[in-house]
Design a protein that fits this description.
Among the domains are: about 75-140, 2-Layer Sandwich (Dna Ligase, domain 1); about 180-315, ATPase, nucleotide binding domain (Nucleotidyltransferase, domain 5), CATH 3.30.420.40. Helices cover about 35% and strands about 30% of the residues. It has helices at about 45-55, 85-95, 115-125, 140-155, 165-175, 220-230, 235-245, 250-280, 300-305, 330-335, 340-345; strands at about 5-15, 15-25, 30-40, 65-70, 75-80, 105-115, 135-140, 160-165, 190-195, 200-205, 210-215, 280-290, 310, 320. The two termini are about 20 Å apart.
Length: about 350
């Protein structure tokens, strides 16, 4: 009776919070048509949180894109001789055991040539056809993938794709609209997307809008909560509430989480120094996302300790939200922690 655009739900099954955001394409325009955020209970029952998220979210679609992260996923940036994409897909199977620490017959492999920066370089006069190709190789243990797919299907949902957290960050960045002149200053400028979750921090460095480095650090907001619990002698759930309340206890919370922030920032800085050194890039800006960056003083600390312009990233800027379907105030309040979900939902454009 009336035309309905395509819709996809980006489903971020975080270790502490399940987050879901639905994007519907109205013509070419992505519109946010659903949102849910449900904390996983102390027992860690993600299936229950997922169930609640779909009750809460009033989504139109059952098509979901989820992601994997952690130790069962390996990402490598490798050089291969110049070849076509189909040749690359065959060649990579033979190369993979040099780079992947898993049994290959129990591993899902994917790869993609990284072309944007090379194309820029060749526009500057260098011929790229005899240069080695930079290739992104991703390997995920089949068991983890299957668990993820089962979880989603048991809720009656239809998994369209399974992505990796760090790449969802890049997809969210792309969805937010990257002005083409952003990189007019040359192809040696880069930005770092850094998502501080509960148990892990994901880093993706983009140059010419394309990933050139990614890394996961096993540290995040849960370590800050632990530190508060230890310092103040309270239970973890109390520490969590104190950390988030941002009232009179703030100086005490800051003191407690200081060492965690320091360790985390050291790791981030190490990564950025590495990229700058190895890729000949200048990381000019850090965009922070994830619930962990809401901790008091986190943004300023990272800015000062890394010496780079740093801001909290609101990925909703410039996106239309269907106000009749979404609790806009709630969504805006949690916007920085919705980046991965949004990046996953951005796949609607390929669905
Ligand atoms: N107001 C707040 N102040 C400080 N920390 C907060 C606040 N709100 C949420 N957090 C922290 O954010 C973290 C959850 O963030 P997020 O939803 O990004 O995690 P997740 O995606 O479930 O985790 P992971 O990506 O590690 O699996 C928790 O550690 C929580 O304590
Ligand atoms: Mg997360």
């Amino acid at each position: 009776m009336f035309r309905r655009g395509k819709s996809v739900v980006g489903l971020d099954l975080g270790s502490q919070v399940v987050k879901a955001i639905e994007i519907t394409l109205e013509g070419p325009e992505p519109v946010i048509t659903g949102f849910a955020r449900v904390e996983v209970s102390a027992g860690g029952d993600r299936a229950q949180a997922l169930h609640e998220a779909f009750q809460q979210g009033r989504f139109r679609s059952k098509n979901v894109v989820t992601s994997v992260a952690g130790q069962s996923v390996v990402v490598r940036y490798i050089n291969m001789p110049h070849m076509s994409e189909s040749e690359l897909r065959q060649a990579i199977r033979l190369e993979a055991d040099r780079y992947v620490p898993f049994e290959l017959d129990e591993t899902m492999l994917d790869c993609q040539p990284l072309t944007k920066r090379a194309a820029r370089a060749s526009m500057d006069g260098e011929d790229s056809s005899d240069q080695p190709m930079n290739v992104l190789l991703v390997a995920c243990q089949m068991e983890t993938l299957e668990e993820q797919i089962q979880l989603v299907q048991s809720e009656g949902l239809n998994p369209l794709a399974v992505d990796v957290d760090v790449f969802a960050l890049a997809n969210a960045w792309e969805l937010c609209g990257l002005p083409d002149d952003e990189f007019e200053g040359g192809d040696d400028r880069a930005i770092a997307l850094v998502d501080v979750g509960a148990t892990r921090t994901s880093i993706n460095v983009l140059s010419c809008g394309e990933t050139c480095f990614s890394r996961e650090i096993s540290m995040g907001g849960a370590d800050m909560t632990q530190a508060v619990a230890r310092r103040m002698g309270v239970e973890v759930f109390e520490a969590e509430a104190i950390k988030r309340a941002g009232d009179g206890e703030e100086p005490e919370v800051s003191r407690a989480i200081g060492p965690v922030l320091e360790d985390l920032t050291n790791e981030i800085a190490l990564s950025l120094d590495y990229v700058e050194h190895h890729e000949g890039l200048q990381v000019e800006e850090i965009l922070l996302s994830g619930g962990g960056v809401l901790a008091p003083g986190a943004v300023t600390f990272i800015e000062q300790a890394t010496g780079r312009a740093t801001r909290t990233w609101n990925p909703l800027e410039g996106l239309r939200i269907a106000v009749d379907r979404v609790d806009v105030e709630e969504l805006e309040a949690w916007a920085p922690s919705m980046v991965v979900a949004l990046g996953l939902a951005s796949r609607v454009r390929a669905a």
